[in-house]
Amino acid sequence: MNEFQEKCSHLNRRQFLSQTSMGLGAAALSMLTGSALGTTGPKTAGLGVLGNPHFAPKAKRVIYLFQSGGPSQLELFDYKPTLSQLHGQELPDSVRQGQRLTGMSSNQSSLPMARSIFDFKQHGHSGAWVSELMPRTAEIVDDLCFIKSMNTDAINHDPAITFFQSGSQITGRPSMGAWLSYGLGSGNDNLPTFITLVSKNGSGQPLYARLWGNGFLPSEHQGVQFRAGKDPVLFLSNPPGMDDHDREQMMTYLKQLHELQYDSWGDPEIQSRIAQYEMAHRMQMSVPEVNDLSDEPDSVFEMYGEDSRDPGTYAANCLMARRLAERNVKFIQLFHQGWDQHGNLPSGIKRQCENTDQASAALVKDLKQRGLLEDTLVIWGGEFGRTNYSQGKLTADNYGRDHHPNCFTIWMAGAGVKPGFTYGATDDFGYNITENKIHVHDFHATLMHLLGIDHEKLTFKHQGRRYRLTDVHGHVAHDILA
Prior knowledge:
With 482 residues, the chain is of the alpha/beta class. The protein is 34% helix and 15% strand. The protein has 2 domains: 1-33, no CATH class; 46-237 and 278-440, Alkaline Phosphatase, subunit A (3-Layer(aba) Sandwich), CATH 3.40.720. The protein has 15 helices and 17 strands. The chain is globular and about 70 Å long.
């Protein structure tokens, strides 16, 4: 094998064509026609593969408050007085309709329906029903768009959260933040496009780094996790014995070596690695600045709650999300574990709400008072809901609820969605959707639409097939758009 053949053997078809006259001709044609291979034109510096959004976006950035474990909609937002009347009675077959159950309750001899022991009231001009567990969220209902008709395909945690993150229950696909980074690029060259924050000391279902991974997209699009403590990003600080000048020289020589390697092999992942090293170098200045809360007045900490002074807590991460949004980070995702109440639900969910309600509401209020809610989309929700029947023993003041993928509630606020609006409905039993189903693929399509992306046109070819976040499904929920 000669040198030319050896080099070509390391290139796939796309990479080879991109380095030949045919590839250059295609690029020139793309610039003239304004569209090719799922893009809208040549990539612009600082932007993603689209160059520009397909149409004018309503949202410039997203803050996604992911509540891992599956919050019970029946205890929080989906008020069902019928369950109080039927408390303890068997779930009718006509309601269940043969729908599958998890292995944790499928062998129960009885499926007794369980009322919520918590009081509900209507709030705001919109009259939205909210549980006593969420008093601070109740204060902002006129800013929220409740979707009570969410449904998903997965019934267990890992495939369900993977489905929400990547549009597939099977691991290996890019996360939604990675897709947005790939398509739209960055709003701040000194911070990652996609940042994740995980509440510290979380318990419950495990969270994996692949949930904010890049999948088969270039690695520069993976989410960067900010951690609590002295070093929010691992390995960002200079090691002992190295100063900034040494680091800069190292980066210069490392880039030259990578460029030589790219010239020899043409592997695009080498360019991604160069971009990541350069971003890490810029982050040595930007991360300490965004992590320094000394410029936040006491009134802000009081708004988010005392926990906001403790780095890594949910409240502190909500405050950090606002600071990142101010700096135009495109996609910020918080993960908070502990919503998986199969037993002892009343005490468990009360504790979860105490840890999250104030900070979630404060984030919306804070963004609004700073004029950021107009172009920031905030999302709150988990991977599925909970059953209307009790898992395990049902008593007057204690019960549990199993996983329920067929209907659950999320809320959205801010850029492009109707405020003070409730969309979709479930039956009197809280078991089936009766109006306006929103599937996970529809949710993704709507999210991308708000960011100016036609979800059918942002694709990536991998192993001979063009993939997209919404797979081959998804419809934009135009009825919730402002």
